[in-house]
Design a protein that fits this description.
233 residues, mainly alpha, Tetracycline Repressor, domain 2, two-stranded antiparallel ribbon, 2 strands
Length: 233
């Protein structure tokens, strides 16, 4: 398949998988399996205790590893937080693929599909995204730079690409850059601010956020069948 979005999905998946952290590792497949094990185990204890109050020993125990085994794949807690960022992007992207995103041909429909799918995914995993937004401040300078780089490539870059595919979008280059960053924030809005909203109306709130975004872009929101829906309908 030569669809640009499909290729973009594959490119991002490769970047997410191929990014390396420091620490010795042999077989790549085993390394990826162990890193996934570390992310799953570390997340359970980090979400409960927070970054600063969690020790490497706590993480090793949660992962079912000895300290020596853990240090074979990572060199610090910063590596682990970086891995959680990387893993969250890969899982989000795979969620869109599994939902049929790459089968959507129309660029405006793709944007609507991506927004709904991404907001739903982030809200369903709000503990993860709340943790990432609150705890990433503890990263050292080098790891923070890496996290910001993969976020710009894989998250903001995804929305940049979607916007660039929409014909006739009346935004300048700088405006598209702001729009891509704003969309990336709107996607996590419910996870970060939904505490004071009605949790029984999540689908309605997602629809509103999609409508809100499309109005700001001067676009008409397509419904599930691909037909246009007038803003505010």
């Amino acid at each position: 398949m030569n669809d640009p979005i499909h290729l973009r999905l594959e490119e991002m998946q490769k970047r997410v998988v191929q990014d390396q952290v420091s620490g010795s590792a042999g077989d790549r497949e085993l390394t990826e399996k162990r890193q996934h094990q570390i992310v799953e185990g570390a997340s359970s204890v980090l979400f409960e205790k927070g970054f600063n109050r969690t020790s490497i020993r706590d993480i090793a125990t949660a992962c079912g590893m000895s300290m020596g085994q853990l240090y074979h794949y990572i060199s610090s807690k910063d590596d682990i937080l970086y891995l959680i960022h990387k893993h969250s992007q890969a899982v989000w992207y795979q969620h869109l693929v599994d939902a049929g995103f790459e089968q959507v041909a129309d660029p405006v429909e793709r944007l609507a599909y991506a927004l709904r799918g991404s907001i739903s995914f982030v809200y369903a995993n709000k503990d993860l995204f709340q943790f990432l937004y609150t705890e990433s401040k503890h990263l050292d300078r080098e790891h923070l730079k890496l996290v910001l780089e993969i976020d710009d490539k894989n998250v903001v870059g995804f929305y940049r690409h979607l916007l660039s595919e929409i014909p006739g979008l009346s935004l300048g280059t700088d405006e598209k850059e702001v729009a891509a960053n704003l969309i990336a924030f709107i996607v996590v809005f419910l996870a970060l601010r939904g505490w004071n909203l009605d949790s029984t109306k999540v689908s309605e709130e997602i629809d509103f956020l999609v409508q809100f975004t499309f109005r700001g872009l001067g676009l008409t929101v397509p419904d599930a069948s691909g037909a246009a829906v007038t803003q505010g309908a």
